[in-house]
Amino acid sequence: MPPIGATSASFSGPRGCCPALTVTQNTGEFANGDMTFAYNSDTCRQTVLLTCSTPDPSLDLNAGIVANSVNFLNFTATSTTFPLTCQASDMRWYVTEPVPLRVDTLECILANPA
Q: What top-level branch of life does the organism fall under (predicted)?
């Protein structure tokens, strides 16, 4: 599987489609959660809905999706989701709202509620 930041030079899929995403394991103070990816298509991935959740909801941990090690995309109790869009011109994944952000790494982290 190509890395999340794969470009057209390293990803051999159809033009205008993006590579499958992978999760970067957090090595800091947060525990790792479970992340799943729901793509619009298995043959030409153009949109994806990320889901980050705790493996044991009874622990009441918050789940958060982090891009590029510093950008918290969404953070809520137990489970959270966030959409990404494939940029056809460079075949990379982007956050489109509130401002465009190219996603090079993704983490699914867990933390105690504040």
A: Eukaryota
The sheet carrying 31-32 orders its strands as 31-32, 106-111, 62-67, 71-77
Q: Domain residues of the chain, as ranges?
A: 31-111
pLDDT tens digits, residue range 35-45? 999 999 999 99
Taking all residues of the chain, what is their mean pLDDT, rounded to a whole number?
Answer: 87
The structure's pTM equals 0.83
Order of strands across the sheet with 79-87? Answer: 34-39, 47-53, 79-87, 92-95, 101-102
Q: Which residue has the tokens 């493996």?
A: 55
**Can you name the CATH fold of 31-111?**
Immunoglobulin-like (2.60.40)
Query: Where does 20-105 show beta strands of DSSP type E?
Result: 31-32, 34-39, 47-53, 62-67, 71-77, 79-87, 92-95, 101-102
Helix (H, G, I), strand (E, B) or coil at 58: helix
